[in-house]
Amino acid sequence: MNIRVVVLGGGTWGTTVASLAARNAATVLWARRDEVADEVTTRHTNAQYLPGATLTENLRATSSLQEAVEPADVVVMAVPSHAFRQTLEAAALYVRPWVPVVNLAKGLEQDSCLRMTQIVNEVLPGHPAGVLTGPNLAAEIVTGHAAASVVAMTEPHIAEVLQRVFASDVFRVYTSTDVVGCEIAGATKNVIAMASGIADGLGTGDNTRAAVITRGLAELTRFGLALGGRPETFAGLAGAGDLIATCISPGSRNRLFGEHLGQGRTLAEARAGIRLTVEGPRSAGAIMQLAATLGVDLPICAEMDAVVNHGRSAHEAYRGLLRRSTNPALQAR
Question: What is this structure's pTM?
């Protein structure tokens, strides 16, 4: 394809998406550290984030933001939610007019409670903004296992072009115009996954996990619909699919974070045990703030917010969920 793609962020998922895009279009990965950029370009690896994986050979990387962004026809934001605004503001100096911006982060901005595409609209008004999301565990995808994702843009013709940028024989990409639903699903499922992990850490069984996932999907759907998302989004890859993968995978950071808490570790110990960005704890407070303004009941998210922001123990949160009323308004359906 005669399209130039830049992916900003040399972490696990950013490197994986850059490697996928490089199969179809000229792609540059921007990494903060010179040594990471050099490794990606010369060795076709990123050992720190994707040990043992070989990247697409024609993928180039640089630590120069200007060099990466100026030629780009598509900007892919692969930095965590807490670094999103700052990175985009720095990149905005070099982004050409009307270039689409695709978000990969599954979180909300803590202070403003904004979705990442809303930040794009503030920093780069007039630029099409969308999201690539789904049940996408990077370590599986980069090694060639089959997976599927959704690229959501309000402009269908742009989504169709981006679909061809990211898709491969084993990475199927669907299109959507429900940007709100896709982003809310991605942020909320990380909080639900912490609850699934806490249950694992406490030694509960598959029945408990199934209950957390099912009730979590009901919460995610209620919340997303209240914000303007569409029902089919939450029943699809961006909703149920991503939620299931994140709640059951041993490689899920948010589930593992919750598992550490369930085993009795402190918040600091749980974070240290993972060493990579975990979006769920950062999003929990913002989600509950939005839910309060909308009058939406999110019992699982409320308990997780209490754990990461208000000092409640994982055991107390679990017992709190068991004490919840089972009247019809709160049943998972």
Answer: 0.94
